[in-house]
Each structure stands twice: as structure tokens, then as C-alpha cells.
Amino acid sequence: MRFFNTSSTSNQSNNFTSEGSSTSKDGIGVVSFKYCVILITITATIVGNTLIYAAIAKFQMLRTPTNIILVSLASTDLAMVLVMSLHAITDLSDYWIFGELWCDIVATLGLVLALVSILHLCVLSIDRYLAIKTPLRYPLTVTKRRVYMCLVFIWTFPTIFLNLPVADYHFRSEVYGCGTAYRVSESFKFKPYIFVVVFLFVVVPFGIMLYTHAFVFRIALTHVKRLSTVERSLRTRGEETESTQRRTQPVMSVKREIKSAKTFALVIGVFLFCYTPFFVTGTYRRVAGPEAIHNLATFITTWLAFANSFSNPLVYSLRYSPFKKAFRKLCRCEKGRGRGNGKMSISGSRKLSPTQAGQCESREPKENAPNT
């Protein structure tokens, strides 16, 4: 999934068969390493993102506008499995074996999914920004209907924009897969298009993320100071009155939203960690030539970018309390009809009593803050 490669169109037809033959075979250690990375990445992506679907389907309390965005983001990660699978075969066989049609499909799909993921992260940042800046109007502003409309836009806009007639690029196969090769040198009119793509789908979204999270952490400092003042007042008086409870409740509510924003900031940080080496090495190869980066380094940076597809469920399971509780219940509780009460029971050799089984389902994860 390389998006910044250069190639000659005259050699394009030969790339599907001949390029792999010029590449020396990897040793058994490198091949074993590749097998492990590929197997872990694809398996973790499928299992982790399927758990997100299962959690939303099982627990009604999780069906919030914010979590709908997370489900859509999980869809991009699951769709990336197709790109991973074809790249895996290419990485292990040392050449692209699927022909020009699938080269077009995989290269386009990989680019679209990467940009759609960035837009999802941008929307999540705006969602947390609104939840903290206007907490009272947030339920009226961020509705499920508006979220669905937003998701339709962030899925269709990159797909249409990247397939405009002015997008004069073609595809090439290489030993690590099939990616986009832009004809920058052939047409001056294409150069502005590259900058427009980068500006619309990279610069603007990450600029919005930077602004919203700067606002969130500025508010965080303010409310931490306010909460500390209230807590000191309570300790001094030695009692907690109803009025002080009313004063602390809005502060605690904002504090929970801030914790949630920190979790999504971590998701953005992981995305940058996974994709930055990928884009840096890809850009360097475009400038210095395809032989400037060793194939193993290309493999590592490419699959590090793929690994971002299972990082989100991992972050949610560690930091985001609603999904953390839901994942725990999905792993421990099996669906079953317990003597007509329709409750769940813990998986294992011993069935729970109806009362205990009822407790398993009644403690559904609530939409509260992630643990820090």
C-alpha cells in the first residue's frame, strides 16, 4: 500500500511478473518474522474490530452517537483486511500475482481507507470538542441522524474526489504490493491535485485535531484547578452538603469528557506512530529511487501502518471504560436462555444461578469515562 511511488509507464506491464525475480530470497529467519507479523496483524484486526461490532450489538447503552463513529472506524479497519491479505501473499511470494485489475482495486482501496480513517479521527476530535465546550447543547447538536449524515460524507467524499478525471495517476506492482504511482513529471496540471489531496485530507484534518485537543487540555487544566478548590473546601468543612454536590457535579461531568478526549487523543497518537514511518519512507523512495530503502524496511513500515487497524480496539479495551466492560463481558459471558429468563451465563464448566446470570447482564457497560 505505497502511495508515493514513481515508475515508468513503459515498464508497467512487466512489473506484474518480472520484478519479483530480481529480488533475492529472504532467509528463513526473515520469512518466519514476516509470517508472524502478518498472522498477528490480520488475526488481531479481525478479532478486535469484530468485538466492537459485538459490543454495540449486545449492549444498548453503547449505541451512542460517539460509538457509532467508532463502529464506522472499525469498518474501515475490517475493510483494510482485504488489502492486508493481498499484500501478505505478495510479501511472501516476492511479486504481485493478481493482475492489473486487482492492482487498481487494492491501490485505490488502500488509499481511500487511509484517508477515511483520518477523517474519522477528525470527526471524533470535533465530537469531544463539542461535548466539552457545549455540554448542555451537545445532546441536541450531536444526534444520531447528523452522525449518520456525517459518516456518509466522509466515506463518499474521498472516494469520489480520488477518482476524478483530473486524478491522473496509475498503478504499479512491486515486491511489497501494488500502489499508486503519480504521473507528476508527465503533466503539470496534476501537481496542484497532489497538494489539494494532501491539504484536504491531511493538513486540514490534523489542524482541526490539533486545535480541538489544545482546547480540551486547556479546559482540563481549568477544571482540575476548580475541582481541587472545591475538594479542599469540603475537606476544610468536614462535610458535604447538597449545594456542594450540585457544584461538583458539572465539574465531574466535564472531567469525564476530558478523560474520554484523552483516550481519543491517544488513538490519534497511535495513528501517527503507525503511519508516519510509512509515509516518510514512501516519500524518500520517491525522491531517492525504489532501491533507496531495503525491502525488509519497506515491509516493516507497511505492516506497521496496517497494525493501526487493530490498535483502536486495543486502546478501547485498556482505556475506554464502556468498551472495556463490554469486552470483558463478551469474553466471560456466553449468551444463553436461563430457564426462560433470557439471561447470560459465564462461560465455563459451571452454570450460574438465575440470580447470578441476571447480574451478568444487568451490569451493562455505561457510557462513562475511560480509566486513566
TrEMBL record:
It is found in: Cell membrane. The keyword ATP-binding does not apply. GO terms for cellular component: plasma membrane. Residues 1-24, 338-372 are annotated as: Disordered. Pfam families: 7tm_1. Keywords: Cell membrane, G-protein coupled receptor, Membrane, Receptor, Transducer, Transmembrane, Transmembrane helix. Residues 1-18 have a biased composition (Low complexity). The keyword Secreted does not apply. Residues 361-372 have a biased composition (Basic and acidic residues). GO terms for molecular function: G protein-coupled receptor activity. Residues 48-316 form the G-protein coupled receptors family 1 profile domain. Its main location: membrane. Residues 344-359 have a biased composition (Polar residues). The chain crosses the membrane at residues 32-56, 68-89, 95-126, 147-166, 193-217, 264-284, 296-318. It is a multi-pass membrane protein. Belongs to the G-protein coupled receptor 1 family. This is Octopamine receptor 1-like. It comes from Actinia tenebrosa.
